[in-house]
Amino acid sequence: MTTPARPRLINALPPEGRERFMRLASQVGFPGGTRIFEEGRRADRFWIVRSGSVTLDLHVPGRQAATVETLGTDDLLGWSWMFPPYVWQLGASAASQVSALEFDADEVRELCEEDPELGRVVYHQVAWIIARRLHAARTRLLDLYGPQGSAPGV
After folding, report:
1. Where is the Cyclic nucleotide-binding domain (predicted)?
2. Cis peptide before 61 (omega within 30 of 0)
């Protein structure tokens, strides 16, 4: 299986909408170890990782933050910008040097309102990503904190 030239979210956009969407992108970089965003803070932008890796983590009271997923090339970083109250549901750190496309959340939401076809595709793709991430987070937390031998069917 070959990797697509553009991330899944961008590939799924209708051609005219894709061009408008990409005009909103800015190239950014994060050195390894940089905290990109904190759980509970305002979510006003998102990124598509072009290279490097980012860890997503969840605050666990009384314990060290639990890494729930590691993102890499072409992954969407951040979805909390899409739904009120627009606060991050997880935290994120650059695990290595990261290059990414950055998008302003207000501009993208406005574009999605102006172009309902584009908006439908963006929301559908982000919903798919959220579902996948929630499943991954649940699995990871069960691995970390569930009772030993808690595999399904046991």
Report:
1. 9-78
2. no
Task: Provide the CATH topology of domain 8-145.
Answer: Jelly Rolls (2.60.120)
pTM score of the predicted model: 0.83
Per-residue pLDDT of 134-150, as tens digits, reads 887 788 778 777 776 55
Share of the chain above pLDDT 90, in %: 66
Whether the per-residue pLDDT at 122 is higher than 60: the answer is yes
Q: What share of the chain is helix, strand, coil (3-state, %, to 5)?
A: 35, 25, 35
Helix 105-114 vs helix 15-22: crossing angle, to nearest 10: 150
Q: Count of CB atoms within 10 A of residue 147's CB?
A: 7
What letter does residue 3 receive in the DSSP assignment?
P
**What is the enclosing helix (H) or strand (E) of 35?**
strand 35-37
